[in-house]
Design brief:
It contains 30 helices and 12 strands. The strands form 4 sheets. Strands 9-8-10-12-11 form a 5-stranded mixed beta sheet. It has a 3-stranded antiparallel beta sheet with strand order 1-2-7. Strands 3-6 form a two-stranded antiparallel sheet. α6 crosses α7 (175-185). By secondary structure, it is mainly alpha-helical. Among the domains are: 2-120 and 174-216, no CATH class; 308-345; 553-669, no CATH class.
């Protein structure tokens, strides 16, 4: 675990130092936050390229660490060192001699750090009976991601195939899981690797939400409030708590000790929005890396677009350098050339190039985030067309990085991209009224957006015109997913809608701060509105932290059986097993003929023919031997999961050599006649 922690620190340090190349005014907390997500992404890509050549070996890991550490060479420059030291001294002074604002920020981050530690500690739980998760919505996702991670570590899955659909290119964005695989390869356990990556990225997310809101609203209070609104997102589900307490004859505090269900997302009743932490960031691991990266992109966009002052300052600096040359003629030539090309040297240009490189990397990190960045950039480029040169740099950088990834992902892919698009009004509302559905799921969030945009502060609007124009493209990410299905499972539209929510949160935070400062009556209203917006999400988070929920994933026999498979089979072996979401084969890194059909379907793959063949094989049908040969199956598992899901002809498998047995699980080697 120590080496894995050192690897993570190297990635964060390298990413943080790299920020001095493109972000001149970021505070230290923001640099560390940017460094965490960009450093982890760089580690994932470096490991992917190196492992594709030599496997995820110790040498590949050392070379990947060297790649992410390259920005540290910038510290050889005395001026860069001075800036780093100055930032460090400034941060140290704020701790030793804190102002009121510094104290508030310190308390805020301390509380958030503790809560996130307790929350992510429950993502994967080791119990006496085996492995479990304390997050209800992670029940089906945790085994899938463990299967991806182990395929890299133990299965030499390079170039990546779908670990649950052998022989098919893996088009799911896998960089986040590959980073966890690097930590496992560096000596961490699966649980430690998940926690290490999750915890660092969640802190990074809070820091980047803070900075995003700070530069957009210029309000410290709104900046601290924005992460609260985002991380404790929810709707009006908290009202059920009071109803259940009254109907059950229990007090509220008595119920808090054993909450019966989630309050932001439920299988019935039209509650589909969910809480960002328990429904998105924990189970959908790719967005935990993709969202911080996207926030870096948004922040750099806004910083590059917020004024022309830096342009004039840079022009003056160029002219000053030009005047230091020997001859007047050379001075004139240099000044003319510098002025005609100075836009390449501007801070805004460096910001846009960095934003393009980061946005382009999102294809294999989180494809939904990539689409959001590209569409938002196109709209903003049309709105702020006077900065067309900077936008040209952004798109050029983004396409240089993204096009090779898109070509790699799509060439030879078996994914049916037609299954990702279709008309469906109202997202996941079912039969509910559209307006009521969104009001119950997000509460007063949408009305407060309207209020924030219309609220006046004296003669001026609370939301400046330039901020309004910057915000408008993000409303597309609410409108479009409410009209079009963007994935086979319509709920996945939430990965796009959430960006509308993130972009709206700073505006609502600014409004709540304004209400708080207006009068005593408005202060009460602001407090009640904040509680209403966050209480349901807080209940779901508390339900995890209080250890109310625990869902078993793998029993002890299954874990030991997985270890036996790793010892008795080659890394690229193809196994036949029951198509269920938590089969022990997922812990081996070996390829599975078919895993959970629910996962395969959401990837746009056709699984029914394989599922039919698997049932015929386990039933010992006349063509079972031919089907095993046709699919190239090398080993078959016969255990409790197989017997629970389908008829199993034990006599058929007894013709093959039994490699090993643990508990009720048996592994057979399939030999060809």
């Amino acid at each position: 675990m120590v080496i894995a922690l050192l690897l993570a620190l190297v990635a964060v340090a390298g990413g943080a130092v790299a920020t001095y190349l493109y972000d001149g005014d970021a505070p230290l907390y923001a640099r560390l936050s940017m460094g965490a997500c960009t450093g982890f992404a760089a580690l994932g890509f470096a490991a992917f390229l190196l492992a594709s050549v030599m496997g995820l070996t110790t040498l590949a890991l050392l070379l990947a660490a060297a790649v992410v550490a390259l920005p540290l060479l910038l510290l050889k420059d005395a001026r860069k060192r001075e800036r780093v030291v100055a930032d460090w001294e400034r941060a140290k002074r704020s701790v030793i001699h804190p102002s009121k604002g510094d104290t508030q920020s310190f308390v805020f981050y301390a509380v958030v750090a503790v809560l996130l530690w307790l929350l992510f500690d429950r993502v994967m739980v080791e119990t006496a009976g085996g492995w479990a998760t304390g997050v209800t919505n992670n029940y089906g996702d945790l085994p899938f991601h463990l299967g991806v991670i182990t395929s890299f570590v133990y299965g030499n899955n390079f170039p990546p195939q779908d670990p649950e659909f052998a022989g098919v290119k893996f088009t799911y964005p896998f960089i986040a899981d590959l980073v966890a695989a690097c930590f496992v390869r560096a000596g961490a356990s699966l649980r430690e690797a998940l926690f290490l990556e999750n915890y660092i990225l969640s802190l990074s997310l809070v820091g980047l939400l803070h900075r995003w809101a700070r530069v957009l609203t210029r309000s410290r209070a709104a900046a601290r409030l924005t992460p609260v609104l985002v991380l404790l997102s929810g709707g009006l589900g908290w009202w059920m708590l009071f109803s259940e307490a009254r109907e059950g004859g229990q007090g509220i505090f008595s119920m808090l000790g054993n909450l019966p269900h989630d309050y932001t997302i439920m299988p019935r009743g039209g509650w589909r929005w969910g809480n960002s932490l328990t429904s998105l960031l924990i189970p959908q691991r790719s967005i935990l890396l993709g969202l911080p990266l996207a926030l870096v992109v948004f922040t750099e966009w806004w910083s590059a677009l917020r004024g022309d002052e830096e342009s004039e300052e840079s022009h003056k600096e160029v002219r000053k350098k030009a005047k230091g040359k020997r001859t007047k003629e050379r001075e004139k030539n240099l000044e003319t050339a510098a002025l005609s090309n100075s836009f390449y040297l501007l801070p805004s240009s460096r910001r846009m190039i960095a934003a393009g490189l980061i946005a382009g990397s999102l294809v294999l990190v989180h494809a939904h985030s990539f689409g959001v960045c590209l569409l938002a950039a196109a709209c903003l480029a049309a709105i702020f067309r006077e900065r067309w040169r900077e936008w040209a740099l952004f798109f050029a950088a983004a396409f240089i990085v993204s096009v090779p990834q898109m070509l790699w992902s799509t060439m030879g892919s078996s994914t049916s991209f037609r299954s990702f698009l279709g008309w469906q009004f109202g997202w996941d509302k079912g039969e509910e009224n559209f307006l009521w559905f969104w009001f119950k799921n997000t509460g007063f969030f949408i009305p407060l957006i309207v209020a924030a945009l219309l609220w006046r502060r004296g003669q001026d609007f609370l939301i400046p015109r330039r901020v309004l124009f910057f915000y408008l493209p993000f409303t597309i990410f609410f409108i479009m997913p409410n009209l079009i299905r963007l994935a086979p499972w319509v709920w996945d539209n939430n990965k796009v809608i959430f960006y509308w929510y993130v972009a709206s949160a700073p505006l609502i935070s600014l409004l709540l701060v304004e209400l708080w400062r207006t009068s005593a009556a408005w202060r009460v209203a602001a407090a009640l509105l904040l509680v209403s917006l966050t209480l349901a999400g807080a209940l779901d988070v508390w339900r995890v932290i209080s250890q109310t929920t625990e869902h078993g994933e793998f029993d002890r026999d299954g874990i030991q059986f997985a270890e036996m498979i790793k010892q008795q089979t080659p890394p690229r072996a193809l196994l036949l097993n029951a198509p269920t979401f938590n089969h022990p084969v997922l812990l081996t890194g070996r390829r599975s003929l078919l895993g959970y059909p629910g996962h395969i379907w959401t990837h746009g793959l056709e699984f029914v023919p394989r599922e039919t063949d698997i049932k015929r094989i386990y039933a010992g049908a006349p063509d079972a031997v031919d089907l095993l040969a046709r699919h190239g199956v090398e080993y078959a598992v016969v255990g409790p999961l197989e017997r629970n899901m389908m008829p199993v002809n034990q006599t058929f498998f007894e013709r093959y050599t039994k490699v090993g047995e643990v508990g009720g699980y048996s592994l057979y080697k399939i030999t060809r006649p």
